[in-house]
Design goal:
Helices cover 28% and strands 17% of the residues. It has 582 residues and is an alpha/beta fold. The strands form six sheets. It has an eight-stranded parallel beta barrel with strand order 9-10-11-12-17-18-19-20. The chain has a four-stranded antiparallel β-sheet with strand order 1-6-3-4. It has a two-stranded antiparallel sheet with strand order 2-5. α12 crosses α13. The N terminus and C terminus are likely disordered.
């Protein structure tokens, strides 16, 4: 009996082993087919079923690709990590009421009003490198609601056989240095900064998009669009507190789960460098929130919650942290110095500058404006009460940063929302010339471009050009023309519909000409960074998280420009290769 039982168990073991081998063979075959784009959707699975655990190479949880967009927006699914990359599966695709269920990447919940469109989208997209979809094509699934299309897809490069990836563009020889009016690399060759701001970290402690797209994808697309530097905004609150970032903010990048804000910043900077992108850190806010106004308590280099010494210490810690990261080429010490007024900005942020207001004599310190009703104080370049003197404060913090890392470029912004650097002419910042860069911003709302006004390029193109050129030269262009220092135009931007708005259109045409024909016309034009990369609003006071970012370059899938005409305007400024006039 014992021998019979043993024989039965032996036979069972043999059969079990064979069955397991057969299952393993079938699983490997399915993976191979998936890698070749032949397999599509798991049979019998609902759109709302959780995805099968499918780690990437080495057992690491793979990144996810997600996109959501309301009608009439389009979606552009893409897999472009390597020449052989393509879409191999669509685990989730639903059209339904935007206010119902959840579009959280990898944790989706179906809306009550809606329907799965996974089969239709899989049929359309699997096997393609890029697949364009229109949300409105599926609106019959929920005709009486404000609907949106939600899609998650898988790329061959996520977990299939290794692909031959194209080499990333090389970074210039570091460190960068200021040389007269230009920035040069370690070999003395000019490095023209063609940049873009990637926002969000100064609001939520994490850059926008990591909840829907892999870091690598965002970095790769940014580089492919012709940018060579990413300006990265942050807040003192998130650097000093360094909180664990909410999982919902990094759902598309599972390896970032449970990481702190600075650990995520480490990963982002490293990934950008691997993609051939330089990084410029910009101090944007003290309290984490949307910038900028006179009520947000971040116009100076201190506020009631963060002292000047805390500000200096924060910068030293960042300089020390990235001292061995050569791709971090520069830092902007203070974004848009501006007035600070007593009052409430939000439920979490309020300002009281009564003591400073009295110290300043109960009046504004710039342009002779009287701000008595609002009780505001203005930063001054190098006069008035010492605590409000901007230049000496920037010299102090810049020197402290260079003590930690003397390879950095130090960016000092102009006063009044980074518009005015007029006092540099007779009272320049006292930092090493090889490290010093001034920063300026330029937007259409800085002045009036009304019809028949002084900047009406439609009726008087040469006169309008001459007047704007003289104005910008007086504000900061003279620094370049006289070879005093480089000027990095670290913010400028316009809406997707800029061509439809007279003021914006007139401004852009004049500013574009100044970029190309202004102070550095013989050396390739100005150094600049566009505002901004992100496709949707990240949140913050008076902002709506998830709403369209009207100035943003990328689409809602983080795969390509949002509109061809908008990006064509950036190409005409020098992004994306040779200028293409529009």
């Amino acid at each position: 009996r014992i021998r019979v039982v043993a024989g039965v168990f032996g036979l069972f073991e043999l059969v079990s082993t064979a069955a397991m081998a057969l299952l393993a063979w079938a699983w490997l075959l399915a993976l191979a087919l998936l890698g070749e784009g032949e397999a599509t959707l798991a049979v019998g699975k609902k759109a709302s079923d959780p995805p099968v655990d499918n780690p990437g190479r080495g057992g690491e949880a793979r990144a996810l690709h997600c996109c959501r967009a309301p009608a009439p927006h389009s979606l552009a699914l893409a897999c472009d990590a390597a020449p052989g990359d393509k879409i191999v599966a669509v685990p989730y695709a639903v059209y339904g009421a935007a206010s119902e269920g959840s579009a959280a990447c990898g944790q989706e919940r179906d809306p009550q009003c809606g329907a799965s469109v996974r089969d239709a989208i899989a049929t359309e997209c699997v096997g393609k490198r890029v697949c364009a979809l229109k949300a409105e094509d599926f609106k019959n699934a929920c005709p009486d609601s404000e609907g949106e299309l939600r899609v998650r897809w898988v790329c061959r490069s996520d977990n299939g056989p290794p692909l031959d990836r194209l080499p990333a563009p090389s970074l210039p020889p570091f460190p960068l240095r200021a040389n007269g009016s230009i920035i040069v690399d370690a070999k003395g060759q000019r490095v023209k900064m063609v940049g873009v701001t990637w926002g969000g970290f100064h609001i939520k402690g994490v850059p926008g998009g990591l909840d829907e797209a892999p870091i690598e994808q965002i970095a790769r697309v940014t580089r492919e669009l012709g940018f060579n530097v990413v300006r990265f905004t942050f807040s003192a609150q998130d650097v000093i507190e360094n909180p664990i970032v909410e999982e919902a903010r990094v759902l598309a990048n599972p390896r970032l789960k449970n990481k702190r804000a600075l650990e995520i910043l480490d990963e982002v900077i490293s990934t950008l460098a691997e993609a051939g992108l330089m990084v410029w850190l910009d101090f944007h806010m003290f309290d984490s929130d949307w910038c900028c106004s006179s009520q947000d308590c971040s116009g100076l280099w201190f506020n009631e919650r963060y002292s000047f010494e805390t500000y200096v210490s924060m910068w030293r810690s960042l300089a020390r942290r990235y001292a061995d990261t050569p791709a971090l080429v520069g830092v902007g010490l203070k974004n848009e110095p501006r007035p600070v007024c007593t009052g409430k900005h939000s439920d979490l942020i309020s300002c009281n500058v009564s003591d400073l207001y009295e110290l300043a004599g109960g009046r504004s310190l710039i342009f002779g404006e009287n701000e008595e009703e609002e009780e505001c104080v203005w930063p001054a370049w190098g006069s008035g009460p010492e605590v409000l003197q901007y230049r000496p404060a920037m010299e102090r913090v810049g020197g402290e940063i260079l003590a930690e890392n003397n390879n950095l470029l130090i960016g000092v912004s102009g006063l009044v929302y980074s518009q005015y650097l007029t006092e540099v002419a007779f009272d320049p910042v006292k930092l090493p010339k090889q490290n010093l860069v001034y920063e300026a911003h330029e937007y259409s709302w800085y002045r009036n471009y009304a019809a028949k006004g002084v900047f009406d390029v439609d009726h008087d193109p040469e006169g309008a050009w001459q007047r704007l050129s003289e104005l910008l030269d007086n504000n900061w262009g003279y620094i370049l023309r006289n070879g005093i220092a480089p000027v990095f135009v670290s913010e400028w931007g316009m809406s997707h519909s800029w061509e439809e708005h007279d003021n914006e259109s007139r401004w852009f045409r004049l500013f574009r000409r100044y970029m190309h024909e202004g102070p550095l016309a013989e050396q390739g034009g100005l150094d600049w960074a566009y505002w901004q990369l992100t496709s949707v609003q990240i949140g913050g006071t008076k902002r709506s998280e998830g709403a369209e970012e009207n100035f943003g370059i990328l689409n809602r899938c983080w795969t390509a420009p949002a509109t061809d005409s908008h990006f064509a305007a950036l190409r005409s400024m020098g992004a994306g290769g040779s200028p293409l006039l529009v």
